[in-house]
Amino acid sequence: MEAELTALAKLAASTLVSTMATSGWEGARRAMGELWRRVHPERADTVVAELDEAHAEMVVARRNGDERAEGDLVGEWQARLRRFLVANPQLMPELQRLIDELRPTVRGEEPHADTVTLTANASGRSRITMSGRDIKIVKG
Question: Is residue 28 part of a domain?
């Protein structure tokens, strides 16, 4: 569960920061505020204000081509989202849903009805093979 939580926090942070430079920013801001408000209503306004500050930093970083600043923002929000998920693991599916909604905006695409989302967990000596379409496995 720890690895899954950390991976989700990293993906969420990267997606959130990337969204800050797109037309989908307001929706992402609102959705993150609502997510926080559900479990920490007393902190939600502060988190939204901090998201606004990060957005302003991101706009300047993109304008100046400052990839380091963008990376710093991802790291900051990854740590914050990881702590949020550790305290509220029941919200992992909702955060994953939010990320899935935001990713097409980040890539400049419209969501498609035929989008496939694959999730797998492995432990020990497990092997996972996943495919969104055709796959051929030959043992040999």
Answer: yes
pTM of the predicted protein model: 0.71
Per-residue confidence of the chain (140 residues) as pLDDT tens digits?
Answer: 788 989 999 999 999 999 998 888 999 999 999 999 999 999 999 999 999 999 999 999 989 989 899 999 999 999 999 999 999 999 999 999 999 988 765 655 444 444 556 677 777 888 777 766 566 666 76
Considering the domain boundaries, does residue 16 fall inside one?
yes
Q: How many domains does the chain have?
A: 1
Is residue 42 assigned to a domain? yes
Nearest to 50 by CA among 76, 69, 21: 76
Domain span including residue 102: 2-107
